[in-house]
Design a protein that fits this description.
The chain has helices spanning about 5-20, 25-35, 40-45, 50-70, 75-95, 95-105, 115-135, 145-170, 180-190, 200-215, 225-230, 235-240, 245-265, 275-290, 290-300, 305-310, 315, 320-335, 345-365, 370-385. It is an all-alpha fold and about 400 residues long.
């Protein structure tokens, strides 16, 4: 079947841009290779940028179709998630040129995030969100993790696997990292064999629920029934732990002061490698939030440009891997972190998560009303589960 004129233009443009890069390619050159007048190109596309983004759009439509076909008949959410991760890695290995155009040519431009092509990437993210929610509903995944943040972490590591595979050539085939990636993902979200709600868990859930209710209502207005509903326990259960509202209020304050004082003491002497790891993640996030202009530059002008991975600056960036490796080795010896963790793959987890959340907060404009500190705490908790021994 003969291709449409639009598809013929896209084929020629994709070939030229893949060879020369978008900034070195002109619409006139594309028209010449397609054997048509330059004006014909503008009958289908607004300009070179629209043409470039339309190539990414066509690729993503094929990715979504392929994903839908491969997920058919896979009922278990854990297996569906694993298949989606494997397909993403495999796509980069087998269609590197198409992946490169999306990552380095399209996503390095802020206007891409307003184009219809990015809506297809968001649809891809929604499929993963759906799998995670299915897993919670079916009792395969934990109920107490933040689904959008877990999704950001997983999509982020896939981005960084692709970036490092295509640009820095750290690993010839990213699919070889599949098992390492799964070894981080499953401990983050999988339901543990042990009871999810021990007596201590129940007490803390009550305190957290009470804190939330007290923050929204006056002391006189709030009721034990509201707290019980939010904590998912009976009113009688609350009275097993706390005498009355006043005791609850004082217990919230006591619990928080204990946590704050513990954190202050650990500023001077971090007790375990796992805690050192958690402090490192939190520190990196807060560093970027304090230097928002630099964070924006990284997100828009650095991470999605191949020149970064070919420069000596990337050698500095790789020191993140060495710092993580030192912590993991120390933790494996001490027993708080599981052994044989691939620090390079985990670096991709961490940087991918930071990138995804930064894009959501600052590029997509969804960070204005976001409690970023709370989201960072949730990331720390998920990533800590990913590496901790005995999880």
């Amino acid at each position: 079947m003969r291709l449409s004129t639009r598809d013929e233009i896209l084929d020629v443009a994709e070939k030229i841009i893949a060879q020369k890069g978008a900034h070195r390619t002109s619409v006139a050159e594309i028209a010449k290779d397609a054997g048509m007048a330059e004006s014909q190109i503008y009958n289908y596309f607004k300009g070179k940028e629209d043409l470039l983004f339309s190539i990414s759009s066509r690729t993503m439509k094929q990715v979504l179709k392929n994903l839908s076909e491969h997920l058919q008949g896979i009922l278990d959410p854990m297996n569906r998630l694993a298949k989606m991760i494997w397909l993403d890695l495999r796509f980069t290995d087998t269609a590197g040129g198409s992946a490169r155009l999306i990552l380095f040519e399209s996503r390095s431009k802020t206007s891409f995030y307003q184009h219809e092509a990015y809506a297809l990437i968001q649809e891809y993210a929604r499929i993963m969100t759906g799998i995670l929610k299915d897993g919670i509903r079916e009792g395969v995944f934990r109920e107490d993790f933040n689904v959008p943040i877990a999704r950001d972490i997983i999509l982020g590591v896939l981005d960084w696997e692709n970036l490092s595979g295509l640009a820095s050539h750290e690993k010839r085939e990213t699919v070889h990292d599949f098992e390492d990636i799964i070894s981080f993902v499953f401990p983050m979200i999988a339901r543990s064999d042990r009871s999810e709600h021990t007596e201590m868990d129940k007490s803390l859930r009550i305190l957290q629920a009470a804190e939330s209710v007290f923050a929204q209502k006056s002391y006189e207005q709030m009721t034990i029934r509201e707290i019980a509903s939010l904590a998912e326990v009976s009113e009688g259960t609350i009275y097993e732990y706390f005498k009355n509202k006043e005791a609850l209020l004082l217990s919230i304050t006591q619990q928080r002061f204990k946590e704050h004082l513990s954190d202050l003491r650990e500023m001077f002497e971090i007790k375990t490698p796992l805690r050192k790891f958690e402090h490192l993640i939190r520190y990196i996030f807060l560093l970027y939030l304090r230097e928002i202009n630099f964070f924006y530059v990284l997100l828009v002008h650095i991470y999605f440009r191949q020149i970064f991975y070919e420069s000596s600056i990337f050698n500095l960036f790789e020191q993140y891997t060495e710092i993580l490796r030192e912590i993991f080795e120390e933790g494996a010896k001490e027993g708080s972190i599981r052994p044989n963790i691939d620090a390079r793959v985990f670096r991709n987890f961490l940087m991918g998560c930071i990138t995804q959340m930064g894009l959501r907060w600052f590029i997509l404009g969804k960070g204005k009303d976001t409690d970023k500190i709370r989201e960072i705490d949730e990331v720390v908790e998920l990533l800590s589960r990913a590496v901790a021994a005995g999880k």
